[in-house]
Amino acid sequence: MGIHPGRASLETAPSRLISRRLALGSVLGLAPTVWAPAARASERVRSVAGIIGCERWGARPPAEDVVVLASPPRRIVVHHTATRNLEDFSLGRAVALARAVQDLHMDTRGWIDTGQHFTVSRGAYVTEGRHRSLAELNEGLRQVRSAHCVGQNDVAVGIETEGTYTGVEPPPQQFEALVELSAYVCGRYGLDPAEIWGHRDFNDTACPGDRLYALLPRLRDEVAARLAARLH
User: Fold this and answer.
1) Domain membership flag for residue 193
2) For residue 209, how many other CB atoms are within 10 A of its CB?
3) Phi and psi (nearest 5°) for 77?
4) What range does the domain containing 87 cover?
5) Is residue 29 part of a domain?
6) What's 21's domain CATH number?
7) Which residues, in sequence order, are CB contacts of 15 under 8 Å at separation 6+?
8) What is the pTM of this model?
9) Is residue 3 part of a domain?
10) Considering its fold, how many domains does the chain have in total?
11) Axis crossing angle, helix 14-27 with helix 91-103, rounded to the nearest 10
């Protein structure tokens, strides 16, 4: 699928994509990362569509330049992080998660940056994952090559939802944030909400969990309703 030269085996191997979720759980068992940027109030760190950009949560620079593709995506792929369902819904937790995911993907997986484009925390904060994803989304013309789903990294926006949703559903506020983010992505890129899929639709994985996967029809319906409402 045309992954950046020198990184194909690192950013596309199915076993790595699946096992990264197991490793992430242990990584996030470490002490939480301190929220460093000066702007602390949520309304001061959020940007278009409520997304906290890489520079705002203190992301490391990518190991190589990210690849911006000439065409827009054709779909959205939803994931879960397969981490503990913590009751910490704070901004600080969302930032700690974003940093831990990036560290895992770069230091353990050997990827150039965070694998997915965006992450939705259990507290409904949305963070940018791979650099330039937010800028390209706001433009609505192109997408950044990612590493979240084998076979889809050039054609799909990857959205991670914090937590494990095999036996429980996401918190209401998290699902609401997922709807809003998905509606924004569909609106900017002109995507049909029917093109919202789960990771398991393309790869051999349990992701995004039985309970979240079962909510995808509702997600599509709610996104479609919001897009329709914005036309009136």
Assistant:
1) yes
2) 25
3) -120, 125
4) 8-229
5) yes
6) 3.40.80.10
7) none
8) 0.82
9) no
10) 1
11) 130
Q: Is the pLDDT of residue 29 over 80?
A: no
Higher pLDDT among residues 229 and 22, named by residue: 229
User: How many residues does the structure list for the chain?
Assistant: 232
Confidence of residue 49 (pLDDT cuts 50, 70, 90): low
pLDDT tens-digit readout, 170-213: 999 999 999 999 999 999 999 999 999 999 999 999 999 999 99
Tokens of 47: 């940007």
- Residue 228 structure tokens: 């329709």
User: Over pLDDT 70: what percentage of the chain?
Assistant: 79
Q: Is residue 90 part of a domain?
A: yes
List Cβ neighbours of 195 (8 Å cut-off, separation of 6 or more): 74, 75, 76, 186
